[in-house]
Amino acid sequence: MGADSTELGFDPDALRDRYRSERDKRVRTDGSTQYLEVAGEYARFAEHDPYADPTFTRAPISEDLDLAIIGGGFSGLLAAARLREQGVDSFRVIEAGGDFGGTWYWNRYPGAQCDTESYCYLPLLEELGYMPRERYSYADEIFEHSQRIGRHYDLYSSALFQTRVGSIEWDDTIDRWHVRTQRGDDLRARFVIMALGPMSRPKLPGIPGIGEFEGHSFHSSRWDYGYTGGDTTGGMTGLADQRVAVIGSGATAIQCVPRVARDAQHVYLFQRTPSTVWLRRNRPTDPEWFSSQRPGWQRERRENFAAQAAGEMVEDDLIDDSWTEVFRAISAPKGEHRPRTKEERDRVVELSDMALMEQIRRRVDDVVRDPATREALKPYYRVMCKRPTFNDEFLECFNRPNVTLVDVSESQGVERITPRGVVAGGVEYEVDCIVYASGFEMSSSLRRRLGLDIVGRDGETLSDHWSGGLRTLHGFMTRGFPNWFWIGVSQNAFSLNMTSMFDDQARHIAYVVAESLRRGAATVEPTEAAQDDWVSVINGFYVGGRSFLEACTPGYYNNEGSPLGGSGFFGAYTPGINAFNRLLEQWRADGAMAGLELRDGDGAELAEGSSTAAT
Ligand code: NDP
After folding, report:
1. 249 CB less than 6 Å from ligand 1?
2. Does residue 506 fall inside a structural domain?
3. Do 588 and 475 reside in the same domain of the chain?
4. What is the Cα–Cα distance from 110 to 132, expressed in whole angstroms?
5. pLDDT for 45-89, tens place per residue?
6. Do both 355 and 413 map to the same domain?
7. Residue 548 domain-assigned (yes or no)
8. 566: pLDDT strictly greater than 50
9. Which protein residue's CA is at the shortest distance from atom 10 of ligand 1?
10. Residues 354 and 250 occupy one common structural domain
11. Is the CB of 408 under 6 A from ligand 1?
12. Spatial CB neighbours of 263, under 8 Å, sequence gap ≥ 6
């Protein structure tokens, strides 16, 4: 170790080499195609709904309405709520599940919890006067909260549950979208909002033999309590004599493995890449503190979180948790210690990232007793290469005699599934149940993720339209697909606090819809020029992120080792969500609907607004 290393307590060159070799051994030549589409013989892993009444039936609906919202998770709920506030009431929310909740309807695995503080994450706390029970809410409370929003804004009367959309097609003759469903509905909607959530389609690893297993298996987002017994808190008596394999070690596995370990005869965790597991420090909400918050507090708190995520200086860290600790570690120092050059900045940030990762690895040393398990659980990569996780029980559970970690990094994953179990390192682990905690489709084709294609003007599909890369205005709308909106992760600002991002997007879209209706527009869509401008803005930002992602261990953040270009789904407005929101607020305040083309039912242009939008 050099002088620098002695001072730091670690050797940056050695760590850099280690990070590179850990990455190289995991990058697979089949990249993102290593995952199976959950369709055909595997459809049950996604389409089976263990929580809904399978006998439910209703008559098909044929109706004209202002708006169809596809998806009843938080993004759909927020879109509906903000539309109601804008006076738009003629809409339907179409949802595949049997209730509102989206992610939190489906993800009821034991221990499921939100890693973002509830005071930031649970939307509309002030509007609904709700105090979260704990600092980090568990899934049942979050699901209940989505139902609360549904009741508060009278959204149940507009919902079509257990309904999957089969096609979405623009009809020029009536200036409306035909939204057709598997229940035979034909909704003729002026506007469509896609509110599907960025991770709604489960994915399965393409492990040979996956269809041959004779025991019980399911995806973590379709937890089968009918089989395991118990509920999200545990009590899974059905597992008492069961050997359970969990495949995957991302945020989901980190939360569910400790609960399964309490109840199952034995748990085998098949881990390809260890997660960073940082401190949770949950605690009940202090009612006195909560009631002392001033009006506007939730927005202020969310902005404080977002500012820190974007590396901005804040006077007070209102959140002060493990997330903001991570943000600090990956942000350049401010004020007089501010780096003067890009090289200096990169070096300072890299060293601070390494120091945090050293702490994370030391925690593994402190907690886990078995030396081989301990080494395998240590992550070697930059902290934001993979989604950090926070849990106070996960590492501890490897000290239990009924938990075995099986490191499958050398073989780039589990080798094979047999009728009796899981093969790794040439050993067959016989199990009764396999849980695939293998994540969700993020970068596969749009058609695959949505399970359908959107057909715009002149019969053009959205997949074809975006085959050369995403083209949008502000991430929400695209030319050729009039009156169509996308909520989620696209060419807008990303926030780890997803619900806050959804709400900001919902407010904006609700404004555009309501304003278009107020102005008597039959259609609204971006001009080509405004869209081109926005794409260049986004592509400009992306340049810095690529080399970082290329050096990362593979995962969905970097499209399994080959990061997508700036116009891909990860192209983002990197100055951060607060800056993006200011831009949108200014755009709305301007009132010109800049960059949008509004036409009446005869095709005549309505708004004069400039052809390009403010960037
Ligand atoms: P992830 O995509 O994060 O993890 C999938 C896991 O499966 C990885 O550990 C992956 O390994 C592993 N895997 C894939 N293929 C194989 C294989 N062939 N053999 C062995 N292992 C394999 O999915 P999660 O469901 O854990 O999390 C998805 C996202 O959901 C999170 O990143 C987070 O954004 C969100 N989430 C949020 C929570 C919250 O608090 N709000 C809670 C839980 C999840 P490898 O890493 O090597 O690819």
Report:
1. yes
2. yes
3. yes
4. 19
5. 998 899 999 999 999 999 999 999 999 999 999 999 999 999 999
6. yes
7. yes
8. no
9. 248
10. yes
11. yes
12. 228, 230, 234, 235, 236, 237, 239, 240
pLDDT digits (tens, 9 = 90+) for 143-193: 999 999 999 999 999 999 999 999 999 999 999 999 999 999 999 999 999
Confirm or reject: Cβ of 115 under 6 Å from ligand 1. yes
At 21-38, the pLDDT tens digits run 999 999 999 998 999 988
**Beta carbons within 10 angstroms of residue 419's beta carbon:** 9
Cβ(492) to ligand 1 under 6 A?
A: no
Residues 463 and 588 placed together within one structural domain of the fold: yes
Q: Is 555 in the pocket of ligand 1 (CB under 6 A)?
A: yes
DSSP states along 9-40: TS-HHHHHHHHHHHHHHH--TTGGGGEEPS-G
Number of domains in the chain: 3
Q: Find the 387 Cα to ligand 1 centroid distance in Å.
A: 9
Spatial distance between the Cα atoms of 504 and 586, rounded to a whole number of angstroms: 13
- Go through 26-54 and write b for each residue having 16 or more CB atoms within 10 A of its CB, e for each that does not: bbeeeebebbbbbeeebeebbeebeeeee
Indicate the residue among 396, 414, 436 that finishes a domain: 436
* Within-domain flag for 262: yes
Do 358 and 271 sit in the same domain of this protein?
A: yes
CA 277 to centroid of ligand 1, rounded, Å: 13
Domain final residue pick, 436, 462, 477: 436
Provide the angle, in degrees to the nearest 10, between the axes of the packed helices 342-367 and 12-26. Answer: 80
Count Cα neighbours of 286 within 13 Å in the Cβ-side half-sphere.
4
**Does the C-beta of 280 come closer than 6 Å to ligand 1?**
no
What digits encode the pLDDT tens for the residues 86-115? 999 999 999 999 999 999 999 999 999 999
3-class SS letters over 303-348:
HHHHHHHCCCCCCCCCCCCHHHHHHHHCCCCCHHHCCCCHHHHHHH
In a domain, 57, yes or no: no
Tell me which residue range forms the domain holding 92: 62-201+442-608
- Same domain? 455 vs 600: yes
Where residue 571 sits, what CATH number does that domain have? 3.50.50.60
Distance (angstroms) between ligand 1 centre and the Cα of 434 equals 15
Q: Is the pTM of this model over 0.85?
A: yes
My answer on whether 454 and 330 are in the same domain is: no
Is residue 353 within 8 Å of 249, Cβ to Cβ?
A: no
Average pLDDT over residues 280-286: 97
Give the tens place of pLDDT for each residue, 523-565: 999 999 999 999 999 988 755 677 888 999 999 988 898 886 5
Closest CA to 362 of 374, 370, 373: 374
